[in-house]
Amino acid sequence: MRMRPTLSWTPTEDLRPGTTDPEPVADALRAGGVLVLSGAGISTESGIPDYRGEGGSLSRHTPMTYQQFTASAQARRRYWARSHLGWRTFGRARPNAGHRAVTAFGRHGLLSGVITQNVDGLHQAAGSEGVVELHGSLERVACLSCGVFSPRRELARRLEEANAGFEPVAAGLNPDGDADLTDDQVGDFSVVPCSRCGGILKPDVVFFGETVPPRRVEHCRELVAEATSLLVLGSSLTVMSGLRFVRQAAQAGKPVLIVNRDPTRGDQHAVTRVALPLGTTLTALAARLDIPVDGRTTA
User: In 10 A of CB 171, how many CB atoms?
Assistant: First the structure.
């Protein structure tokens, strides 16, 4: 029997309360060699909700697992109907002050790299280079049969043509671009196959219950090994895909610093957790380090 993936975490031990003093983060940035690990919390100010914070989508929505998606045509219909609608909003999201500050830190040589658990592409839209997308990207679609990749905008066009008049009102949007729709709203939504071989199309993202590609994990481990410190931004670290890098850094004696308003599963490994909003905190840190934050984006 396959176990459900970990979707939530409850502290089982006494954790140090978060601080409102960001100076340890400033010190780490001054030293350079900082590896950023970002989560859904950095994108909330761009209008994309997170999974577990206040008002997080897990309170109303259970993400589809890889096993459900591959086993059921009805599950795929439900996923693509919700994702197609969500893409219209998700695709309009723009980088916020937090993304722009991370880009500024990188351009001034303070970062050794950026790993993101997000699939929204907002770090790149803000101008960050060499971003490792741990969980993939909604910008791409993969065929599970022939393995060919194609742009999401191409699939969006095909779905528009196959579902003329599909305009339901969603109850909300989720971090994976999935809109909240009822089964009645999904109705008989038409899913289109791979245009090359007729196979099943899947977004190029790691679903819950799916594993991150081993080569990608190894690349991230190498980045952690090369970094001076690890800075976690807006992640609860509930899932092992991100937590393992925090544990690796701590075991190697590298400082782990977290900026997240709520406690995280990695707090016990961190030298500090700054419990402040990301956008204003990172912007203030940039000002403290005399680093201008460019408001332009590449989107």
Answer: 12
| Catalytic annotation, pick one of 61, 123, 135, 269 | 135
What digits encode the pLDDT tens for the residues 275-292?
Answer: 999 999 999 999 999 999
Edge-to-edge order in the sheet of strand 201-205: 149-151, 136-143, 201-205
Predicted model pTM:
0.89
DSSP line for 162-230: HTTT--PPPS-B-TTS-B---HHHHTTPPPP--TTT---EEEEE--BT-PPPHHHHHHHHHHHHH-SEE
Q: What is the pLDDT of residue 51?
A: 58
Nearest to 123 by CA among 33, 42, 204: 42
In tens, the pLDDT along 13-34 reads: 677 789 999 999 999 999 999 9
Q: What whole-number distance in Å separates Cα of residue 26 and Cα of residue 11? A: 28
Is 135 tagged catalytic? yes
Identify any residues that bridge with 201 across adjacent strands, giving them in sequence order: 143
Give the model's confidence band at 8: pLDDT under 50 very low, under 70 low, under 90 confident, else very high.
low
d(CA 233, CA 216) in angstroms, rounded, equals: 20
- Distance of alpha carbon 37 from alpha carbon 49, whole angstroms: 18
Nearest-CA neighbor of 296 among 165, 59, 126? Answer: 126
